[in-house]
Specification:
The structure is a single chain. This protein has 308 residues and is of the alpha+beta class. It is built from 6 helices and 18 strands. The strands form 4 sheets. Strands 1, 2, 3, 4, 5, 8, 11, 12, 13 and 14 form a 10-stranded mixed beta sheet that branches. Strands 15-16-17-18 form a 4-stranded mixed beta sheet, sandwiched between helices. The two termini are 30 Å apart.
């Protein structure tokens, strides 16, 4: 389902949800900054970042839409990736300095057997250049300053790790193998770390060559209405189309329609006497999203009120 061509605007500016197809070469912070410029508002938040080299789905909440970001079910993600076996880097991706280059000479069956060990519930040590905080500082910032960083292993789930293609290549005289794959995984999974660990399991070293996120929760590239293009200048970023908040609510939450009296109570953030079917449930009136509510011992109580 693609977004409607228009979003909504309130007294403080536009409100809605934006699915971006992030290009390579810019940071997620730059995507947000460009969206703020294009939409003429500072009130924009995101639901997870992508590395500068990565492309694909990035989700932004605009205006009142920022209130919904923490309530969306976005735990599962899909990536299409190319991993290079035979060379390791200090960042576990193609932008890092080479730390080892033993090369690789493997057949597809050997690679598939190793890949099988990374499916399901696994324990993964995140890449040292991740955004995880160590004593209040981002790990990647510490690494850039020459600090050694050791991050704790964490459980993640890789529900799909399918090899699409295996092909030999040459990297400045080093024989390597490029592996194209599609991966479904939970939030917190580092695909760079999967490439590193796959290379370690095969005894060749490995790193990430390319990464494209094609899905976050229920949102795919088909939903993307905007690419925060790398070029700059006047008119470089025309205002993108937003998913209307009511459309988003009907797609992502259980919904209930209320009458005018209940809508007035919602506006004051009051509990409702009506039962709602889920936590959270979107409360709508006249086709407009008012709030998110959750079940209570009697009736329901507000989680996030968008109307005032």
């Amino acid at each position: 389902m693609s977004p409607e061509p228009t979003g909504s605007a309130g007294p403080t500016g536009p409100a809605g949800f934006l699915v971006v197809d992030k290009p390579a070469g810019i940071t997620s912070h730059q995507v947000v900054a460009r969206a703020r410029r294009a939409l003429g508002t500072k009130k924009i938040g995101h639901a997870g970042t992508l590395d500068p080299m990565a492309t694909g789905v990035m989700l932004l909440g605009v205006g009142a839409g920022t209130r919904l970001l923490g309530h969306l079910t976005l735990a599962d993600k899909t990536y299409v990736t190319t991993m290079r076996l035979g060379i390791s880097t200090h960042t576990d991706d193609a932008e890092g300095e080479i730390t080892a280059a033993p090369g690789a000479s493997l057949d597809a069956d050997a690679i598939e057997r190793a890949v099988a060990g990374f499916r399901g519930d696994i324990v993964q040590v995140p890449s040292s250049v991740s955004a995880i905080k160590v004593n209040g500082q981002r790990a990647y910032a510490l690494v850039r300053n020459g600090r050694d960083v050791e991050l704790a292993a964490r459980p993640v789930t890789v529900s799909r790790f399918d090899v699409l293609d295996v092909r030999p290549a040459d990297a400045d005289g080093v024989p390597v193998i490029d592996v194209d794959a599609v991966i479904d995984c939970t939030s917190g999974t580092y695909v760079r770390a999967l490439a590193r660990d796959l290379g370690a399991a095969l005894g060749t070293g490995g790193h990430l060559r390319a990464l494209r996120r094609t899905r976050v929760g229920p949102f795919t590239l088909d939903d993307a209405t905007w690419e925060a293009a790398v070029h700059d200048g006047p008119g470089a970023w025309p205002a993108p189309a937003l998913i209307d908040l009511a459309t988003l609510a009907r797609r992502c939450f259980a919904c209930v329609e209320v009458d005018a009296d209940a809508a007035r109570d919602v506006g004051f953030g009051r509990p409702l006497s009506i039962d709602v079917p889920a936590d959270p449930t979107a409360v709508l009136f006249g086709g407009r999203l008012l709030a998110l509510y959750r079940p209570a011992a009697v009736g329901s109580v507000p989680i996030a009120v968008l109307s005032a």
